[in-house]
Amino acid sequence: MRVLIIGAGKLGYKLASQLSFGGTLVTVMDSDSQVLEHISDHLDVMLIKGSGMHIEILEELGIHEYDLVIAVTKSDETNIVISSIAKRLGCKKSIARVRNPEYSTQSGFIKKTMDIDYIINPELATANEINRNLLYHYSLYSGDFAEGRIMMLHFAASDLPGFVGKKIREIKNINGILIGIISRGGEIIIPHGDNQIMEDDIVYVIGKKDNINQLAKMCKTSVQVKYIKRVMILGGGKDRVLSCKKANIPRYFCKNR
Question: For 144-215, which CATH class?
Answer without folding.
Answer: alpha beta
